[in-house]
Amino acid sequence: MKPAVALEYSGAPVGAPVYDLAHVSKTYARNAVVALEDVSLTLRKGSFTSVIGSSGCGKSTLLKIMAGLIPPTKGRVVLQGVPVTGPRRDIGMMFQQATLFPWKTAVENIVLPIEIRDGKAAAKKAVEKAHQLLDVVGLKGFENVYPNELSGGMAQRASICRMLITEPAVLLLDEPFSALDELSRDMMNMELQRICREQNATAFLVTHSIQEAVILSDEIVVMKPRPGRIAEIVEVDLPRPRTLDMMTTPKFGEIVDYIRGLLDKGEDM
Amino acid sequence: MKPAVALEYSGAPVGAPVYDLAHVSKTYARNAVVALEDVSLTLRKGSFTSVIGSSGCGKSTLLKIMAGLIPPTKGRVVLQGVPVTGPRRDIGMMFQQATLFPWKTAVENIVLPIEIRDGKAAAKKAVEKAHQLLDVVGLKGFENVYPNELSGGMAQRASICRMLITEPAVLLLDEPFSALDELSRDMMNMELQRICREQNATAFLVTHSIQEAVILSDEIVVMKPRPGRIAEIVEVDLPRPRTLDMMTTPKFGEIVDYIRGLLDKGEDM
Amino acid sequence: TAQDLRDITFVQPSPSAINSFPVFVAIGEGYFEEEGLNVTVEAINGSGAVLQALSAGQAHFGRPGPGPLLAARSRGVDAVHIYNVAARSNFGIAVPQDSEIQSVEELKGKVIGTGTADGAEVGFARNVMTGANMSEGADFEFLTVGDGGPATAAFMNGEIAAYSSSTADTAILNQRGMAVRDITPVEFGRFFGNGIATMAETIENDRDLVEAWSRAFAKGHAFALDDANREAVLAHLAAGNPQEGEDKEFQSALFDAVRSKTIPTDDSKHLGWYPAEVWKEWEDALVKGGEISGPLDDLSAAWTNEFAEIGNAAVGE
Amino acid sequence: MTEFQTNSPGDFETVQDTVWKQEIAFIDAVPRWLAMSFVFVVFIGSWQLVTALELVSPIILPTPMETLNDMIFVGKNLLTGGYMLGALWITIQEVIYGFALAIAIGFSLGVLVGETAFGEKAVMPYLVAIDTMPKVAFAPLFVAWLGFGIESKVALAAFIATFPIVVGTAAGLHSADENARMLFKTMGASRMQTLIKMKLPTGLPQVFTGLKIGAVGVMAGAITGEFLGGGKGFGELIRVAASQLNTPRVFSLILYLSLVGLAVFAAVSWTQRKVVFWHKERVGAGDA
Amino acid sequence: MTEFQTNSPGDFETVQDTVWKQEIAFIDAVPRWLAMSFVFVVFIGSWQLVTALELVSPIILPTPMETLNDMIFVGKNLLTGGYMLGALWITIQEVIYGFALAIAIGFSLGVLVGETAFGEKAVMPYLVAIDTMPKVAFAPLFVAWLGFGIESKVALAAFIATFPIVVGTAAGLHSADENARMLFKTMGASRMQTLIKMKLPTGLPQVFTGLKIGAVGVMAGAITGEFLGGGKGFGELIRVAASQLNTPRVFSLILYLSLVGLAVFAAVSWTQRKVVFWHKERVGAGDA
Ligand SMILES: Nc1ncnc2c1ncn2[C@@H]1O[C@H](COP(=O)(O)OP(=O)(O)OP(=O)(O)O)[C@@H](O)[C@H]1O
Ligand SMILES: Nc1ncnc2c1ncn2[C@@H]1O[C@H](COP(=O)(O)OP(=O)(O)OP(=O)(O)O)[C@@H](O)[C@H]1O
Ligand SMILES: [Mg+2]
Ligand SMILES: [Mg+2]
């Protein structure tokens, strides 16, 4: 694996390792599809890592394994020094499909994790916070609307709020902004960065947007498909905090191009 | 409405009008949300039009009205000289949520529109074509896989195939490529262009990617939210056929920036 | 006063008040009250269920048929008949009024329908046919047709030539325009039908109750047999089962049919009297029909005339 | 390629609005009263025909007229608080208590069967076996243990109505999809929370299917109970009438009874509409 | 903020694999035979206890031993082709034909009710009303028209099993979601095509809920038919045994009968698993 030597490197994540994946493989028994092969990865506390790779290369599978939702076929997954052998409460996860429950309003959906963790009373207290979060994602006024009255992007934003409300130490995000316009997306990116910094959270983001990956991440895991493997882990040495105007800097463009190059190659591999 | 005078204009669509929308408004009765207000629009035969606008500004609603799936509250929608007062067969529509039927394999899902239009025998004959389409979208080898074994992006690509198989004269696409990586997306954009040209189809695409809108479209409808209105219709005078390397031309960048500017403003409007 | 009365439950195998008319008359005339009893009547489905209710202790007295009572005894349930209500049998074999069949002998090769409620009419019909030297399968067939509606249908469809049923059922068919004719030879009247039964345990531990019941019951029976009391009797029956009393003519005809069967064949004997030899005949018939596996250890324990006597004695007072 | 309609474009410049309504097929547009009356007329008409042509004996099927007359008679009795009203009230109580009991038991068993492999593998077969057994065999047991009061009928009514609720509930618990399950796992929801906050709400449409079938079963159960286990309810009246071949009365009584059944069913349907508000039951082509 | 577990990281460098299995709760892990045996033992145990303590008269509830003995007797008769086999065969035929008929009618009516406003508004109330009516009222009609052969029992069995299938089918047709409906509209699907190719497959889980409940109802219906309308089936044997207070026989017969019921139910469940293959019925916490 070629290291990202082409780029000057400065500002790698320095926290203690939070996630540790070694030689993780996954074969779906039903159709014998090898979704992941020998994936090794370490995430450090407070770091932001993105995964990028073509559709079907195993990104969602990787996230589910990290979250302890499905077992790997081989390999080791350790979170916070404890092997992952099932779902864990210290993780906040957002799925590729926004799943809001139709019998709950937007706010009720958002406080659901609190309700589950701490009970109804706590959930009631969290309503205020849910309102704030909805405001942050631009859904003010839609607090008491039921999900089937929301647009695709609105539902996705509500899901994000639901994940954020528990302030989890580790965030696993599967294409959370895919249904958002660029502007909202940029705004959400900045909010996500702010929240992660504030809470010193460790984030792991699946995205198809190279720009998004670069602006947010300390490291970008580039995957290649069939079977899904890591092609390269690119470190992004842009200073923190990132701002949107960094996107117009030459360095940003360089990294984006470098990753695009990797992905292009990935196609033929 | 400010015309796109800032850009040199050459090569507007010249076909006969196919779609004609005048003063279309839509208020959802249930929550009194004004999703669309006074939208007027003409699509000409063989033209490619994109809609861009922030999440929740009424893009999906507009598409559904054009497709005759929901009635407008006010206004006129005419397709091919016939008022739209219900679903029409001459339209191919792709929804924001990829809806594949779990009891059918990828190929069976794809030939479903043929089965419905022309019966089982015709569907059987169309299997060959479905295979080709799957190949085009990079799903070779997944022909006989059931939807719940597909990744998010794979399901989306299969949905595109399903829409394309009937070779509809008018394509309505609601964020069809949102779950695809950039590379696949570029590839799909080029394929879509090729297909539209081959079939002289009229296309109407909802997207959040300005790049995608610009590279594909003759006209870009920029919408602003709450209530959803047309902010401006920008004509894209890049020569046809478009190629991916046009994306690096200054003109392309100019148009992208112009649209981004419109969207930025839209936020405060 | 009402509070001091003892609550007693009586179960009958069919819903009609007329079939248990002495009970309702005794209630209406206050005979039970005089004995310190407050009697509630429950109608359940057939003699088997009556015996089950008795053995479960849910009811004190019931009105099962002799066949089911012997069957229950053979299974270790010590139920005892203490009053022969249908002394002249409440079963019969009937044919449509316009049928060519005049006697049971002519039923050779025919199908005889049987009801479903009790199972006792099957035993009775078998007795009658055996008496005419015919055996099931070879000379005739039984077909279970159920009661009332289905039986009518069976007649009309010609699926059965005759119908073995209770006296009341026959009367009802006639009343409803399905004219039928009883062709049972008179001598089979000795095969008495349903009577009052209680548990031996009750007789042993609660003799006073059984005596009190018997007195009131016999008085009710005697009162009802007196034509002078007809109006009062019908009123008591209507009070017990208002719906049955709505159609006076119907009620009256049915009452006549049922009442006529409660008078002992041997008029030298008192009301409710049981002939020991017919019990033996019943037992034989049941053994032959397979309803019980063999003769009972002590057939005489199945009934007693003692309480009927006490009851009759009270009537005179 | 799909052929275009041939109208030339431009003709519609003058058209102001193309506001349309979902086309409603004729069969869906018929107003309720008309549709119900239609079925009613067909129903009564064939009934009248069958009796007029004397296709069946009047002891088996009364004429509609006879039945109507008897219904008036029964109706008067009910309205004037006659003995029938008391009987009806007893049966209504049996139905209500029986249904409540069936819901409690059926729901609990449904959760056991739908939620645990133990329930599905080990309990369900016994439930099926017990439920296929003719209830007559159990009626004496119920009477023996519960007496002749409404308790034994309540038990039998509940017995019959329980099974559909079990099956509906169990099936409902299986209807949650993969995403929702995973979401709940990541939230660290306990099994109980997943059950209550996700699987149950998701499965409510199926639960209500069971409840609707049970609502009808409970009626049948109460009447069966009265037939087999005595009592003083409406079933007893029917039995008396039936044993006397008073068929107009039988039919008029069961028609009144079916109104009670309809009421119970309607109550369940109404509850469903309120509770499962997000699951719009849509009928016909006219759904948007 | 969620607290971290406190193990220090790095301890696990030597761990090779953390391959895990879905944790299966104890209650779900019990093997089927053990679970069934357990319930069986509890069941028989309490039965034995009730009879041993003489809580109930032997003519109401036989002992398990008596019942077993009688089952052996009946079993021999069945195996040697005795008269009981003939009776059982009659009842099985009634059940099979009755179920087939119920499926045909129930499904058609279910489509009518679930698909058309006319069916929902006008037909359903009548179905509910008819189904709440005690079947005794109809038995004479069936007998009058169909005779005492199996036809009248088939009709009654079908009658009872139809309603659950109607409700299940109708509910199933309502379960398709907005997106699927819209998709079919844009494909220009006719109402019939939407029904057959989309609504029905989507609603199959609900249809099967109805079929399962109906499968159990059909058994009860056949036996009820035999009780009310005579004939020569297994129900008749039960009735005779019951009227003779031969309770061990009654219980042994109904136990055999319940095996038939289980078989019908199992056949429906099996079909469901084959037909609705994409809708994995998952039970317990151990679902992935
Ligand atoms: N439940 C499953 N059963 C069988 N195969 C599966 C399943 N889920 C995913 N796969 C297969 O595993 C591979 C990886 O899927 P995954 O969803 O991880 O891709 P992805 O990288 O998230 O793609 P996308 O960007 O399109 O969401 C694909 O080939 C897919 O077909
Ligand atoms: N079925 C509905 N009932 C009520 N309100 C609705 C419904 N569908 C959409 N809306 C409202 O209409 C507005 C426009 O929604 P629409 O789905 O058209 O947005 P959109 O532009 O497609 O957004 P996105 O990019 O997020 O998909 C939103 O405010 C939404 O809340
Ligand atoms: Mg994915
Ligand atoms: Mg949308």
Automatic annotation (TrEMBL), chains A, B:
The lineage of its organism: Bacteria, Pseudomonadati, Pseudomonadota, Alphaproteobacteria, Rhodobacterales. It comes from the Bacteria. The keyword 4Fe-4S does not apply. Keywords: ATP-binding, Nucleotide-binding, Transport. SUPFAM superfamilies: P-loop containing nucleoside triphosphate hydrolases (SSF52540). Residues 19-250 form the ABC transporter domain. This is NitT/TauT family transport system ATP-binding protein. It holds the Pfam family ABC_tran. InterPro entries: AAA+_ATPase, ABC_transporter-like_ATP-bd, ABC_transporter-like_CS, ABC_transporter_ATP-bind, P-loop_NTPase. Belongs to the ABC transporter superfamily. PROSITE patterns: ABC_TRANSPORTER_1, ABC_TRANSPORTER_2. GO terms for molecular function: ATP binding; ATP hydrolysis activity.
From TrEMBL, chains D, E:
Pfam families: BPD_transp_1 (PF00528). GO terms for cellular component: plasma membrane. The chain crosses the membrane at residues 33-56, 68-90, 96-114, 126-148, 154-173, 207-230, 250-270. One of its GO terms (biological process) is transmembrane transport. Residues 88-272 form the ABC transmembrane type-1 domain. Keywords: Cell membrane, Membrane, Transmembrane, Transmembrane helix, Transport. It is found in: Cell membrane. InterPro entries: MetI-like, MetI-like_sf. It is a multi-pass membrane protein. Belongs to the binding-protein-dependent transport system permease family. This is NitT/TauT family transport system permease protein. The lineage of its organism: Bacteria, Pseudomonadati, Pseudomonadota, Alphaproteobacteria, Rhodobacterales.
